[in-house]
Design brief:
With 435 residues, the protein is of the alpha/beta class. Helix content is 32%, strand content 24%. Bound molecules: 5'-O-[hydroxy(phenylacetyl)phosphoryl]adenosine (DLL).
Length: 435
């Protein structure tokens, strides 16, 4: 049984009615409270009365990251600051950070969404949970903390980093659960192996991982190396943080908390809505947030949506694991390439470690991709020839599956920096104006 079966298992028709009601209320709220939306709606001559069905959401304007930056720090906040009880922020890669202000009501909703996420992962009151997400402005640490606290768990807020200490605590406190980015989970697994600690023999049973794209292959790798179930959480600062979507024991897609977030998928070029099942950019409208509700926020994340009866009676629409961000999509020899596709293929090669980086450069007019990956220790002992043989094998595997020629470099053991948060997978060496 889910944490909140009233909403998680609500009959679809009733759920849609609920969403429509909340959508209308949100439109009315933002047009009254936020000048940015008030002006946009006025220009487009849209009022809450124009929203007669959920499909009418397509009449509304999109919101993009630069809108948040332009209104930094609190220009999109619908309430006076004295009603804001928390502010998180995400630094992103360039420019000013974007802020996420919360009223107490927003925080309570977020906690509810996180409780659903963690309960669906099989976490219960009796569990000792080790929270190795960054604690601070990043939403991961506090988001997971509060969700686990709501379940009544014993929370150990280790934060990210100090990997040896993570492992000692895991042993001493007998942690049942780990929260981390998938790349940090792998760093922990690797360090434990070096310390001759077999995590598979410890009580650790489940991890809830997210905040960056990771493939099914990576999930299996983590599950095997740690002897745990690797569950997933998805979310973004602009919408609350983690808690937007989560998978359940069947690990078959992520359920979107639909009573809080209305999801659409659009063609990233034309911005036209796409039917269920088609891949495109994920768009969210927050339905119940007070301080900073987002209207049709463009996530840049690429996935597809589908609805079918879910695990334990869940009715929420599901999304696939994120394939990648449209920002991270590379075009190599005319083929669209997401780093996750390369990751999936690398994980099929038994001679390499799941530690890789993609380097994009310019050769003449064309973009060129180099795959840097670490080999398993025995590869290095086997000498140069074996190394080249494996490089050829990987290049052939990528060519055979994706039709692109890449340069593969088996780098020295530990040459790729280990991640404690979001892994840096792509290094772009192209001149800025040619990207
Ligand atoms: O990463 C919130 C979060 C924290 C989610 C902890 C899950 C766990 P931001 O830093 O604002 O928020 O980054 C949001 O991260 O648009 C996606 O591109 C990516 N992302 C988040 N979760 C996943 C996931 C947090 N499960 C951005 N799979 C999003 C793939 C993810 N990408």
């Amino acid at each position: 049984m889910p944490w909140n079966d009233k909403f998680e298992c609500m009959p679809v028709e009733e759920l849609k009615k609920f969403q429509l009601q909340k959508l209308k209320e949100t439109i009315a709220w933002v047009s009254e409270k936020i000048p940015f939306y008030k002006n946009k709606f006025r220009e487009m001559r849209i009022t809450a009365e124009d929203i007669k069905s959920l499909e009418d959401v397509a009449k509304l304007p999109f919101t993009v990251k630069t809108d948040l930056r332009d209104n930094y720090p609190f220009g999109l906040c619908a309430v006076p600051l004295e009603e804001v009880v928390r502010v998180h922020a995400s630094s992103g890669t360039t420019g000013k950070p974007i802020t996420g202000p919360y009223t107490q009501e927003d925080l309570d909703q977020w906690i509810e969404c996180m409780a659903r996420t963690l309960y669906a992962a099989g976490i219960r009151k009796e569990d000792v949970v080790q929270n190795a997400y960054g604690h601070g402005l990043f939403t991961g640490g506090l988001g997971f903390h509060q969700g686990a606290a709501a379940l009544g768990c014993t929370v150990v807020p280790t934060g990210a980093g100090m990997t040896e200490r993570q492992i000692t605590i895991m042993q001493d406190f007998k942690s049942d659960v780990l929260f981390a980015t998938p790349s940090y989970a792998l760093t922990i697994a690797e360090r434990a192996e070096e310390m001759k600690v077999d995590i598979r023999k410890l009580p650790l049973r489940v991890g809830v991982f997210g905040a960056e794209p990771w493939t099914e292959g990576m999930r299996q790798e983590i599950e095997e190396r740690m002897g745990i179930k690797a569950q997933e959480a998805f979310g973004l600062t602009e919408l609350c943080g983690p808690g937007v979507a989560y998978d359940a024991a069947d690990q078959n897609g992520l359920y979107i908390n639909e009573d809080h977030f209305l999801a659409e998928v659009v063609d990233p070029q034309t911005l036209e809505p796409l039917p269920e099942g088609e891949k495109g950019e994920l768009i969210f409208t927050a339905l119940q947030r007070r301080a900073m509700p987002m209207i049709r926020y463009r996530t840049k994340d690429i996935t597809r949506l589908w609805r079918e009866p879910g695990h334990e009676g869940r009715t929420f629409i599901r999304m696939d694991k994120i394939y990648g961000r449209s920002d991270d999509m590379l075009i190599i020899s005319g083929v669209n390439v997401f780093p996750s596709q390369i990751e999936a293929l690398l994980l099929e090669i038994e001679e390499v470690e799941p530690q890789y980086q993609l380097v994009v450069s310019k050769k003449g007019y064309l973009d060129h991709l180099s795959v840097r990956v670490e080999g398993k220790p025995e590869i290095y002992e086997a000498g140069e020839d074996r190394r080249h043989e494996i490089e050829g094998k990987i290049a052939g595997h990528i060519k055979g599956n994706m039709g692109i020629g890449v340069n593969v470099e088996l780098v020295d053991a530990k040459a790729i920096a280990r991640s404690e948060g979001k892994a840096v997978r792509v290094i772009d060496e192209r001149p800025k104006q040619e990207r």
